[in-house]
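Retro notes
What went well: the complex prediction finally ran end to end.
Inputs used:
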Amino acid sequence: MKQSQLFTKTLKSLPKEEISINAQLLIRAGFIDKLMAGVYSFLPLGFFVLKKIENIIREEMKNISAQEILMPALHPKENWQVTKRWDILDVLFKLKSREEKEYALGSTHEEIVVPLTKKFILSWKDLPVFIFQIQDKFRDELRAKSGLLRGREFIMKDLYSFHLDEKDLDDYYKKVSDAYFRIFERCQIAEKTYLTLASGGTFSKYSHEFQTISSAGEDIIFICQNCDLAINKEIKEEIKECPNCGSKNFKEEKSIEVGNIFKLGTKYSQPFGLTVKDKNGKEKPVIMGCYGIGLGRLMGVIVEVWHDEKGIIWPSAVAPFDVHLIQIENTQKVKKTAEKLYKDLQKKGVEVLYDDREDKTAGEKLVDCDLIGIPIRIVVSEKTLKRNCVEIKRREKEKIKLIRIRYLPQFFKIKNQKSKIKNI
Amino acid sequence: MKQSQLFTKTLKSLPKEEISINAQLLIRAGFIDKLMAGVYSFLPLGFFVLKKIENIIREEMKNISAQEILMPALHPKENWQVTKRWDILDVLFKLKSREEKEYALGSTHEEIVVPLTKKFILSWKDLPVFIFQIQDKFRDELRAKSGLLRGREFIMKDLYSFHLDEKDLDDYYKKVSDAYFRIFERCQIAEKTYLTLASGGTFSKYSHEFQTISSAGEDIIFICQNCDLAINKEIKEEIKECPNCGSKNFKEEKSIEVGNIFKLGTKYSQPFGLTVKDKNGKEKPVIMGCYGIGLGRLMGVIVEVWHDEKGIIWPSAVAPFDVHLIQIENTQKVKKTAEKLYKDLQKKGVEVLYDDREDKTAGEKLVDCDLIGIPIRIVVSEKTLKRNCVEIKRREKEKIKLIRIRYLPQFFKIKNQKSKIKNI
């Protein structure tokens, strides 16, 4: 994409109440726009990142045989009354139609997915079932001051699993946990992310969260220094030694929850009468699990982990583009070379943001480039063209290398339409 | 995909109040589920179709240089007060937070996109701007009895354009109109779809709708028998002869609106103060257009146009799969052959739904196949295997052909990962 055509610009001013690093950087760089507290628009650059995160999550969900659906946000009151959460759940937005019909805005989808699957799960032979969606959620949060980390409206991947017995749930639960770590691995936050015991709920003693260490975190976790299992502060009181390895050596860290997985048991299948006859003809409620990841929150966490004082440093799998190609000076020679490189790289499947703006100084362009945070920067200027070279630099490194233009395409090896970029 | 793994099934019973053909067929075939009047879930088969429609629309939007963003559904009351539509728009859902803050649920996004673009459109040099989103909309409809044709919650592509002058708007307006016809062409409803004059609003005398002829339609249009321009009944009184060619020969038809395009002029830019200095330094409000297509509605229209008494007949570009491969009898030989064909076709990039269910009769499978409506049916049975053949049939044709298995792959020529299917 040519930067001159991008309708957004980097901004100097910020909404005054915006205190989180992720929102500050994402707004200044033109990835998101704040509509009100906890509610953001994704602008073209942010939308590219969102789609990359979405595709990573979708691939990993398909790898664990989950089928994708899309459920509505507008829910009938009756469904939420069945589980009694209409009155209990304080974050539930409620509204009425002109005809005085009452609705909730979905903050989660157990109340919809259970009666839905009940139409299709008629026998033990229909189990297990794994279904997920990537969909807009609403929560009436009192605090919404953490940018993308805590939204009143936010995009979430929610997966629901349905099983005949606990053993089958346990097996799938482990598979989802592994899939989540692959997602965090691909987003390059796995090293800082810990499987964390949290308060459980109805079925199992504990649930599991995935917590990423960050000074922006609103949670506190205690990480076992022997086996890396973490424990959320809310249950640390009751746990003296690591339930996994017995160690008593914990390290306290601030962290952000990037995902959670719950064994729901029969909490939602029972009130909706989602039962099957087992092999012996005995009617029993279906056993469920649910598993969430917030896409916007994940984007926010990535920015909290990957930035410096100049701007964002996108991990390559979720970067809006692979290469930021910058034309310094607008001479014919520079423009012609940059334009050719832009086309050649795109032909190789490399995604390029080409800063062809003629009304910006070299300084302004380089500052914008660091703020936007695309992994590879290539600078075309008169100075280096004299030696038939361009400058190439990784965002996170200081070192600038000169490389002959004719060798440049070899730096980009393409596989499966994804650019693999050699070390530079 | 193996049909035995699909969590949905075809259904015999229907929600009793479901009177529209599109919803009846889509529910029975397992594409959608009705949560309440005007609110549906997309199940795996329906989700595949939705994604194909989404990709067609996205491609055509990119072809006309539109940039994709994603705006929220939750809107602050203040924005809707600026345009006075908070009080006027009767389909607007309104709600309050716990802290008594008032919101609207977006039924359209002028109130959000104008203040958003105002942050980036600072000079005439920043124009034109074209931005679109594919996003969930909400409308408090009194009537919602037409299945996917009229929803209380529905996915819409909304495009907004921003221009310095009317000429530039007119040029782009024409481009969008052409893009819309390409979309309808790819969805195979273009032959029945007419550009239609409708009541205009503020800026131009008329707006334009795209109306598809259908007995399920809630609109009535008059089609000029000379030049094919249509006129919506609501303005037919004031138009005696075709404004395009002067003919007075019209044919009356029932129709469904599948898209609309509006010249908004300065109706929304003015109240939000979205102005630029023109080349002479004179401050002037930005001129806008807006352009909508409902994705679910488009799916519903396709079903209304493309079905018979047995079920849906999907146009190939939006079909959930290219081929429905059916194994009749569950002998080792049939299963082995079907399994191999399933893999071979997938390797060629052909999307296959493989009916490997062993608890269904041949009759049940063929009835389901016609209901689901995938373009090509391939049947593997003992009878034809004796002659090293399988049966192949197009959904919309009666004729069944026998084809030698080894010639089958040649029927599928692949280009750009999309299957091109020879005439059979």
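What we learned: The domain at 3-308 of chain A is CATH 3.30.930.10 (BirA Bifunctional Protein; domain 2).
What to try next: split runs per interface for comparison.
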